[in-house]
């Protein structure tokens, strides 16, 4: 088996993102009617809040449709947008549906998301809007599809998935399991209404999102997108591109993705995603990755690529294992893939999520790519305090994006409460005597750090507890359900953030 090896030549580091700060808040976390955050008015209100508080960046989680477990990092398509994010209030204003049509979804607001209820009810409402608007929009939709061929593959995938009661494409009959362009046309012709519905969702979602992005950019806010390096096995991406994934003759993965034992799990993290066949990808010039990046460049100003270290070497776990312990490191495509992404990105800034087990080779690749990595403040504390820890702000290089915690971390409030052994180190490092002063002092010290960009979660800015964290890695519990409350975007918080931002030169 051939392997790729990373070059050791390191070029001068570069960083195009403007010094500033921002907030990580997924679309689903916005306060809105009908059960989940959307691309609607509350998203515009959040942009106004960012502008008022002098924040330059809005970081999102992946915008793709979610599958089992509701994780935005496991999607039916790496290209499609989540139909749940279509704003129903805008559809009502456009006359595509009525308030009565959406009445079943109009429940009292609560700080959570009932994904099962949304799945059973929301698509029925969207189908009413589709039937009332498709004919009038058909010409515009044809234009959209002509520029976004992936939408046809996504629509066909969702049609056949529906015909098979939601089962994975690996369980479909051979007639549908083996993808071809002729099969795509057959699916479209034999299931015209359902096929057009899925196309319609992508046209509407893209139109609503791009209007939101245009508004954000006009108000001085850049959108930071996020994509997982891998895609879900049960996805249109794998179904339509089987030759560039490590699959056997029965369409099963030979090995799957994960990471070895780490900070989050003693048995590693078994993600289960199929692995790319990078040699096949290199033969066709990384065509799939270029297409993915080109689409992202039209959606985001900055792109965060999750698990960047997988480009240098990836953890391959035998298919069927129940933990990630028995994996092994396999060399990745390194600069071959980096250069493909740069070429297709049209100048879009890229953030390399470089957390986890980092070797010198990974650090060298990041430097040669000229992409900034991540720093996580919560990772900076040991018992006793180790001031040489790279995650402490006084050690940050300028070319990085710094966080207190990301979507996989505990909220800072709960982190302090549940790590009493680290509290003395926190107090010592911050020069404090009272535990209750730790949170705001950490926020301020991160703002004043050398990091060119700092990003906060809303939970940390609001001093919220562990019940409000986005995700607990390795679990299928109540993840991906965080939502703002009525008073989250207060003038007091905006003024406080503005003062911190100006004081720290951001």
Question: What are the salient characteristics of this protein?
Answer:
506 residues; alpha/beta; eight-stranded parallel β-sheet; four-stranded antiparallel β-sheet; 12 strands
Helix content: 25-40%
N-to-C span = 49 Å
Radius of gyration: 23 Å
**Sequence of strands across the biggest β-sheet:** 9-6-3-2-1-12-11-10
Main sheet makeup: 8 strands, parallel
Mean of pLDDT: 95
What is the percentage of strand-forming residues? 5-15%
The low-pLDDT segments are 1-13
Count of helical segments?
17
The computed structural class is alpha/beta
Number of strands: 12
SSE string: EHEHHHHHHEHEEHHEEEHEHEEHHHEHH
**What's the shape?**
globular
Description:
With 506 residues, the protein is an alpha/beta fold. It is built from 17 helices and twelve strands. It has helices spanning 41-52, 88-93, 115-147, 150-163, 174-177, 181-190, 192-218, 236-240, 278-283, 287-297, 335-344, 360-369, 412-418, 423-430, 438-447, 458-461, 491-503, and strands at residues 20-24, 57-59, 222-227, 255-259, 269-274, 302-305, 313-318, 328-331, 349-352, 373-376, 400-403, 453-457. The strands form two sheets. It has an eight-stranded parallel beta sheet with strand order 9-6-3-2-1-12-11-10. Strands 5-4-7-8 form a four-stranded antiparallel beta sheet, with no helix packed on it. The longest helix is centred in the N-terminal third of the chain and has 33 residues, at 115-147. Mean pLDDT is 95; it is low at 1-13.
